[in-house]
Amino acid sequence: MSEDGGPALRIDVVSIFPDYLAALDLSLIGKARDDGLLDVRVHDLRDFTHDRHRTVDDTPYGGGAGMVMKAQPWAEALDHVVAQRGSNLADARPHLVVPGPGGAPFTQAMARQLAHEPWLAFACGRYEGIDERVYEHARETLGLEVSVVSLGDYVLNGGEVAVLAMVEAIGRLVPGVIGNAESLVEESHEDGLLEYPLYTKPREWNGRQVPPILLSGNHAAIAAWRHEQRLARTAARRPDLLHASHGDGEVEIAAATPSDVPELNVLFKACWVQEALLNDTLDIPALTEGLDDVRASLDTTQTWVARKGGRLVGAVRTSRLGDDWHIGRLCVVPDLRGRGLGRRLLEHAEATAPDGIRTISLDTGALSTDNLRMYRKSGYRVVPDAPDVPAGAVHLTKRPGR
Ligand code: 6GU
Q: Which residues lie closer than 8 Å to 73 by C-beta, 6 or more apart?
């Protein structure tokens, strides 16, 4: 219950298949409704049509396959939902969630945020989608926050199944819906690792044994074993969830692609803020450029990215100017410095120099002592009074193969 005694969360669902949502009467969510914790109301979109055939779709302007859901029934349905505000909702408006494969990914973090809202409305689209003006009407005329949300990278025929999943994920986070608070804490995904394997009685079943460590009574050893199992499972099934803090993974260096651009932009900023502080200058392109600049640089330079367990941990780029092979933007995330990763990226950049190159060059801050030490060790020497070097920076070169 909320403070005023009304349900903690009101949920409206609009669909042309209201029967699909009957499953919300069952199990935990159904019990939460009976207990007055959730107020779930399902509406039939066709109730807001006015023609004999109860038409909800029509052909797309501009051509193309399939049908588009008409604006008028959707606008009337949403107007109706908003007008059904209970006295317990004061001046609240629903946050409109539209399931669709083109939406932002639905995650546990998003479920948690949505569970804090007082009122959610779900608009289940079918066919190719809903007339865009419905979104404008919801935002501008009704003043709703509108989020398009996807369950994953596959296509469902409509939003109904997605709404069942989302309401279950959100509803169980509403206080009181699940009795045992601990079962909410110890869960897959909450700390970025998958769960360990589970066993219950009997200790031998069909000739299969429970791992003996679980019967040992040694709680520290059990916790260590379970952590190992979580790491192994996550590595096998969801390597994208693993990052450096979860232990060691191999660093892989690969040519950057446009999909690396957002992370690269953040990496450059993280690295060059430190560089700027060290050298007391903010006149560094990496700090002021945007996504478009980084994207464009992929065409004019060869950029390499280093990933460890899926996480972007370093980068370097190369470009040829006559017989000089220039290395730029060599950077490593702050928490993984001092482990030879910068050196590896540097050697990679050097190894890709084409034949006919007479010098390899790079620039760094005159006061960036760690960088300078590493470059000297790798055979680079500062070129005194080099032309075209920005204030506060130094130019270093070496001959290839040294
Ligand atoms: Cl949320 N809706 C639809 N229609 N298809 C999907 C989806 C949602 N998530 C993945 N595919």
A: 45, 46, 48, 49, 56
Examine the domain organization and report whether 233 and 262 are in the same domain: no
- 194 lies in some domain: no
Domain presence at residue 191 = no
The pTM is what? 0.63
Residues 44 and 102 in one domain: yes
Residues 16-66 have pLDDT tens digits of: 999 999 999 988 889 999 999 999 999 999 999 999 999 999 999 999 999
| 144 and 226 fall within a common domain | no
- In the numeric block, which tokens belong to residue 102? 């083109």
Ligand 1 centroid to residue 147 C-alpha, Å:
13
Q: Which residues line ligand 1 (CB under 6 A)?
A: 99-101, 149-152, 154-156, 158-159, 162
Omega prior to 202 cis, within 30 of 0: yes
Give the other-Cβ count within 10 Å of 344's Cβ.
Answer: 16
For residue 196, the one-letter residue type is: Y
What the block records as the tokens of 37 is: 């914790």
According to DSSP, the β-strands at 146-150 and 204-205 are unpaired
In this structure, are 385 and 263 located in the same domain? Answer: yes
Domain boundaries, position 268 = 251-398
Nearest CA to ligand 1 atom 2: 100
**153: CATH:** 3.40.1280.10
Let me know if residue 15 belongs to a domain: yes
Task: Give the ligand 1 atom nearest the CA of 155.
Answer: 11
- The total number of structural domains in the chain stands at 3
For residue 161, is it within any domain? Answer: yes
pLDDT tens per residue, range 273-330: 888 888 877 778 888 898 999 999 999 999 999 988 788 999 999 999 999 999 999 9
Q: How far is the CA of 151 from the centre of ligand 1 (A)?
A: 6
Same domain, 28 and 156: yes
145 backbone dihedrals φ, ψ, rounded to 5°: -80, 135
The radius of gyration of the chain's CA atoms, rounded to the nearest angstrom, is: 29
C-alpha of residue 168 to centroid of ligand 1, in Å: 16
Q: How many CA atoms lie within 13 A of 88 on its CB side?
A: 16
Q: Do residues 103 and 238 both lie within one domain?
A: no
